[in-house]
Design goal:
Layout (H helix, E strand, L loop, with lengths): L1 E2 L7 E2 L1 H14 L7 H4 L11 E5 L4 E8 L15 H4 L7 E3 L22 E3 L23 E3 L9 H6 L8 E3 L23 E3 L9 H6 L8 E3 L13 H5 L5 E3 L9 H7 L7 E3 L6 E2 L13 E3 L4 E4 L14 E3 L4 E2 L2 E3 L11 E3 L6 E3 L10
Parallel strand pairs: 1-3, 2-4, 4-5, 5-6, 6-7, 7-8, 8-9, 9-10, 10-11, 11-12, 12-14, 13-15, 14-16, 15-17, 16-19, 18-20
Antiparallel strand pairs: 3-4
Length: 369
Amino acid sequence: MCLNFIGCSGKLVEEEKRALLELRDSLNYPNGSTLINEWVEENYCAWAGVFCIRDLNNDVHVLDIILTSKRELGLGIWYPDANLLTRFTHLQSLYISGNAIGNWIMPEALCKLRNLKELDLSFNPLNGDALPHFQVCSLASLEQLHLSGIYPSFPLPLLRALCGLKNMRKLDLSNNNLTDDSMPHCLFDDLSYLESLDLSGNNLKNSHHILSALCTLRNLKRLDLSDNFLDDGSIPTCLFEKLSVLESLDISHNNIRGSPGFFSGICKLRNLQVLNLQDNLIQGGLNPCLGGMTSLVSLDLSFNHFEGTISSSIFSNLTLLETLRLSDNKFDGLLLFASFANLSNLEDIDLTNNEFEVDTETPSWVPSF
């Protein structure tokens, strides 16, 4: 695909054509690549996963390369040549997850990708030298880095290499079984611009250092801590006090019991739009402070041990709410469906598998969902 405003005329730079062919041929060497059947058109920019842009000189350059899970199973570890990528002088995005990459030949060549903004190396068996040390090699353009599901285990030198990524906006370290001992102290020191952090699928229950370090990320808008064996005491209070611009918080699939201190902290996050507490161990009634979280668009409290009646007023001020999930709890008593009358934006509501009786006999109000 060619990305520009006045047509796709112009030719791909010859050096970049050759680099695409070399990348194709190395992907499944010596067995040949499935890309031989996919990358067949004369127009290289029409190839699947290749996106191009035309510059002011009418030269066409590769802008993005997306090669997710293209390597054939059974071929073993792949060691692509990072120097080959330097021929793509305008490259901004490289998605190459799920291709059995163990390391790069000449990984320091990645430092020359001065326009690279997004890099996805997830689901690869990377070793500790798979990335250059960014404190020495400043890849100032890099804004998104995805390193999810590195197997068989995440190498500690690779984490230390991440220190110094000062312009990072989005970082994904999910599904790596990381613990407090795994994380170098320098990792979050320079991430003052970070807006999205995914640490789901790790083991952060006793990771006081990691979780406290998150409190310094003042620009963080999205935080995913799901599936981490967390309990109420695992989460430092500073997380609720310092992350004032947080818009999305996912703490689902943990061992949270919902102490008063936990909910009083959650309710301080006045800009929160998405709150996911699904599949925890939260007991008791709904904390009234939830009714003051007026920015909420999505609230998921399903698969917990909530009990008691649901106050008719607790959701009345959550007028922006589009999704509400309260299923698989122990709520009882009488629930007036008219309690949701103010929620004109509500599109998705799940109240199943509870013990309450729902009163829908309110002729003056018809739900919009």
